[in-house]
Structure formats: C-alpha cells, structure tokens
Write a sequence for this structure.
C-alpha cells in the first residue's frame, strides 16, 4: 500500500506532496501522486499539459523532501472528491491540502478536503496552508485528542507510533463540558471537582498499556474543562501533528465526520491526521 496524495497544481498541493513524502518514508511505503481531472474522459492516454506540469511539480517537491523515496504519479478522470475517495480504498494513508482544487487564498478549508475527510475509506491527513510559500512543521510534539475509550484506541495507536518514530513527546488532550438544560441541577449533583476526577480516571483507563508499549515516548496528559476544538487548536500551535478520530463521543448515527475533526480541518495550524478504521 502507498501513501496517496491528491494534487492540483497549487502551492498548497505541492506542500502536501512534500509532507506526504516524509510520511511515506516514516511508514516504509511508496508515494502515489494523483491528479483528478474532471475534464478528462476514461481511456485517455495523454495528460493535458497543465496536468502533466502539476504532477511533475508535485513529484519534484516530494523527491526534494525525500530523494530515495519511490514516487509514482497519475491523472485520473473525474471530480477530485470522487477520485480521491476511490483511491483511499487501497491507500495506506490519503493526504490532501486544506485548500486548492480551485480554492482561493483566504478561504477556509476547501470543499474537497472536507468531503474527502468525511467519506474516505481509511485515514486522511490534511496539510494546512501555512506560510508563504506553504510549509509544514518538522519538529514539535505530537498532539492526540481522545474522547471515549473505544474511539481513543486507534487514535492513541497512531499517535504513539508517530511520536516514537519521530523521537518527539506526545501530548494527550482530553476535555469535558457540563451540558444540559438545568446546569444548576447538574452542578449540584456533580461538583466540578468530582467531574474532573472522573475524567482524569477515564484518561488513565484509555491510556492503560500504551506507555508500556512505547517506553521511549515522553507523555504529557492534559485534562481540562472546555471545548475540545479550542483545546486542540491551542496545543497545536507548536505541534508537528494533531491526531484525532473521525468520530467521537456523541457522534450522530450516519454522520461520517465528527464536529471536532470537521472544525479542526478549518482551523488547526498543523497537519491533521484523522484516524478511521477500515470497514
């Protein structure tokens, strides 16, 4: 399986290709660069000149980042979201920039990134448009956002592996909020201190065994009251990567992408890995 990155000729996509090359080496696999061309027709053997140039530029950025990496590239007919979701079925990881594909500078994450993150058949990394030209952090901690025990296991597995391979610390973030119609009643029945202790115990249970499996990873546990999105964005400012699940506690049946991961696509300044178990 390869890491697959979607490109469109934009600077954001070239930066995503460079990040994808680094991740492919870390995972020990090749890199496949894909240009989805909605104007092409099935069976066409020759790429349009702008498509060939976009593929060549992306491959050049990937090879400059990782000279010994095996890189292949292709153009496929169809809308980017449909092509890339199909590519995700056989991908080790699917990577996209947070805009591009016809997006405009200054806009929040493009529709393609959101749709791909929502419907991909495996994990997706979204590389943000940060800097001029765009770049990505090559140092700093890995930040993992955990929610319920079940969804936290694959997130922690990925986060520990990345932190271990990079030799970076892991910051595990868990937040809680008091919600409901009668907040006064909730507070009287569940004092803030009691809730905080419960959430600390939850995180300890969720992380049981992981530090023993990865003894070389320095771990900081961060538990607090408030919005998970705000907390993760705050801790992502110096992070090399943020790792979250596709859906977490309170996920809506039938929804493909949780509200936290959806909002982080729009706002996190560091690359975002959305972990999804394959069906």
């Amino acid at each position: 399986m390869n890491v697959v990155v979607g490109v469109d000729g934009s600077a954001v996509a070239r930066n995503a290709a460079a990040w994808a090359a680094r991740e492919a080496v870390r995972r020990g696999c090749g890199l496949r660069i894909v240009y989805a061309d909605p104007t092409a027709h099935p069976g066409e053997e020759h790429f349009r000149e702008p498509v060939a140039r976009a593929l060549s530029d992306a491959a050049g950025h990937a090879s400059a980042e990782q000279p010994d990496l095996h890189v292949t590239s292709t153009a496929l007919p169809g809308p980017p979201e449909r092509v890339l979701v199909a590519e995700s079925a056989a991908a080790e990881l699917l990577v996209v920039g947070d805009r591009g594909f016809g997006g405009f500078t200054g806009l929040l994450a493009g529709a393609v990134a959101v749709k791909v993150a929502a419907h991909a058949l495996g994990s997706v990394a979204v590389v943000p448009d940060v800097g001029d030209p765009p770049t990505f952090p090559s140092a700093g901690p890995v930040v993992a956002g955990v929610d319920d025990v079940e969804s936290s296991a694959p997130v922690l597995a990925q986060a520990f592996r990345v932190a271990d391979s990079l030799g970076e610390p892991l910051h595990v973030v868990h937040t809680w909020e008091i919600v409901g119609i009668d907040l006064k009643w909730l507070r009287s029945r569940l004092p803030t201190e009691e809730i905080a202790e419960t959430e600390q115990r939850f995180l300890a249970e969720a992380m049981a065994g992981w530090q023993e499996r990865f003894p070389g990873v320095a771990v900081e546990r961060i538990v607090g009251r408030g919005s998970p999105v705000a907390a993760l964005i705050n801790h992502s400012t110096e992070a090399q990567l943020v790792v979250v699940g596709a859906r977490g506690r309170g996920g809506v049946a039938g929804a493909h992408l949780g509200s936290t991961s959806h909002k982080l696509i729009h706002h996190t300044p560091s690359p975002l890995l959305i972990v999804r178990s394959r069906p």
About this structure: The two ends are 16 Å apart (CA to CA). The beta strands are 2-7, 31-37, 71-77, 91-97, 124-127, 142-145, 170-176, 219-225, 241-245, 272-275. The chain has two domains: 2-127, 142-271. Residues 237 and 269 are 6 Å apart (CA to CA).
